[in-house]
Amino acid sequence: MGGLIIMRSRWTMLAVLFVARAAMAVQFQSIAAIAPELGKTLNANLADIGVLIGLYFAPGVALALPGGAIGRRFGDKATVLAGLALMLAGEILLGASTSWSVQVTGRLISGVGGVLLNVLMTKMVVDWFSGRQIATAMAIFINSWPLGIALTLVALPLFQAGSGIAGAQIAVMALIVAALALVGLFYQPPGQGAAPASAEGSRLAKPAILAVLLAGSIWALYNVGFAMIFSFAPSMLVERGWSTAAAGSAVSIVLWLAALSVPAGGYLADRTGSRNAILAASCLAFAALTLLLWQGSPVMPTMVALGLVCGLPAGSIMSLPARVLAPTTRAPGMGLFYTVYYATMLVAPWLGGKLALWAGSAGAALGLGFGALLACPLLLWEFERRLRAQAPTATQAV
Fold first, then answer.
1. Residue 123: CB partners within 8 Å, gap ≥ 6?
2. Closest Cα to residue 312, out of 138, 147, 185, 85?
3. Which of 7, 104, 204, 384 sits a CA distance of 20 to 30 A from 161?
4. Per-residue model confidence as pLDDT tens digits over 209-257
5. In b/e form, how buried is each residue of 358-395, taking b as 16+ CB within 10 angstroms?
């Protein structure tokens, strides 16, 4: 009976963190979801709107690593609540003025809050599930992002149509407030994790740093593969004669099916105990399908196959840090992990665009995604090699 209560509490904590991260996804996507009307309100062109979208991730390069240290100093829950409060403050600023400087400031403040959530909540999931059903839990947690984006694309334009830009922004604020209430009222750390950790024993050793950098690189390059599909495949299809609406709808199939394949991959990895095999095989399949799409394979079957395959490695990849980080090093370790992610994702879309311009076709950016995905199994091999070489460090992460 006691074990059942523990299991329920673990999944309850995961549900709370899922809602909070979904709120972050909604806020990130809220600019793009109402971009046409927002552009008119702000007198902004598409490039300006693109700047507002990208600013949400900009603080991550500088703040992901300190974010882990902040969580260690003040406690995970308090830091996540502060992050949600920053997200709310940023959204309020967006609604308070149409001044461009206010919009930029609001978006950056929101992004700072988002960084704290991304780093700390991932660590909180590891705290609850490390060593047991970690791939499944991570896959469910990660799924909050595509589901939040999909929800935004469907619901926010309806709020905007009924109540204007202000109505859409109020809807985002309401979701953030709900996430604040859930985390504040229901989240509890496991065991003795309630007290903020001291700096003693929380420094990462060099072997652990290298392993975390490798894990972060795998996660970053996997996401580059995703980003190239969503950022450039619609333009590639338009070049081939598709309408903008039809191209967007076709690519969205990948997103909706990924919402199924991400948790399925995590469950399969935990059930079979073959996380590395699933990670490597599905990354290679993802790469092959990306190449086929680029080279002109039938679009709809390829999109369906991509959606069914692309989510399978996610849970296994996100479980890698748990294998090398002890409880006292998880906060700085996840900060380092996300620093690699944010830095890569800041450069990758720009590089994809440069490749597309150089080749004269948006499809060339999919070649970058193909190469990034091929690199993931190689980095996994190096991660495992280093883990075996420093077995005493690895055994701490239980």
1. 68, 71, 76, 330, 331, 333, 334
2. 138
3. 104
4. 899 999 999 999 999 998 888 778 888 888 898 887 788 778 888 888 9
5. eeebbbbbbbbbbbbbbbbbebbeebbebbeebeebbe
Its pTM stands at 0.79
* Residue 203: alpha-carbon gap to chain centroid: 25
Q: Which CATH architecture has domain 2-186?
A: Up-down Bundle (1.20)
Q: Do domains 2-186 and 206-394 have the same CATH topology?
A: yes
Nearest to 89 by CA among 20, 184, 156, 172: 172
Domain 206-394 has CATH 1.20.1250.20: yes
**CA 204 to each of CA 62, 115, 192: distance values in angstroms, whole numbers, following the listed order:** 19, 21, 21
Residue 102 exposure: Cα atoms within 13 Å on the Cβ side: 11
Q: What residue ranges do the domains of the chain occupy?
A: 2-186, 206-394
Specify the pLDDT at position 109: 96
Token pair belonging to 89: 């403050």
**Alpha carbons 253 and 145: distance in angstroms, whole number:** 15
